Amino acid sequence: MTGKQKVENIQADEDDELDEWDQRIFSTGCAEEQLRMNDCYYDKKDWRLCRNEMEAFRQCWKRKGNEERTLSKDAAPEK
C-alpha cells in the first residue's frame, strides 16, 4: 500500500476519529510524505538510508509554509 493510499484510508475511515497526532500531520499538508518517511525507517531501521524520503518531507514542509509552525532552521549542508 502506498503512502497516498494509507492517507486516503485514514481519511475515509469514518469509524475512527483522527487522534491529535494525525490531526497535526494532516494539517501540515505533508501527511503522504511523512508516511513514506516513516515507512522507509520501519523497513530499513536506519534514517541514513531514508534521505530521499526525508528530503521530500522537508521540501513539502517548506512548500506548504510550515516552517513558521516550528520555528525551525535548516541545518548546514553536510560536506
What features would you describe in this structure?
With 79 residues, this protein is mainly alpha-helical. It has a domain at 32-64. It has helices at residues 3-12, 20-28, 31-44, 51-63, 67-70.
Blueprint (SSEs and pairs):
Layout: H1 3-12, H2 20-28, H3 31-44, H4 51-63, H5 67-70
Helix pairs in contact: 1-3, 3-4
Give the gist of this structure.
This protein is mainly alpha-helical and 79 residues long. It is 63% helix and 0% strand. The mean pLDDT is 82.
Q: Main traits of this protein?
A:
mainly alpha; disulfide bond; CHCH domain-containing protein; 63% helix; 79 residues; Coa4-like
Inertia-based shape: globular
Mean pLDDT: 82
Summarize the main sheet: none
Beta-strand percentage? under 5%
Structural class: mainly alpha
Gap from first CA to last CA:
36 Å
Order of helix and strand elements from N to C terminus: HHHHH
Count of beta strands = 0
Number of helical elements: 5
Radius of gyration, in Å, reads: 14 Å
The unreliable regions are: none
- Quaternary structure state of the chains depicted: single chain
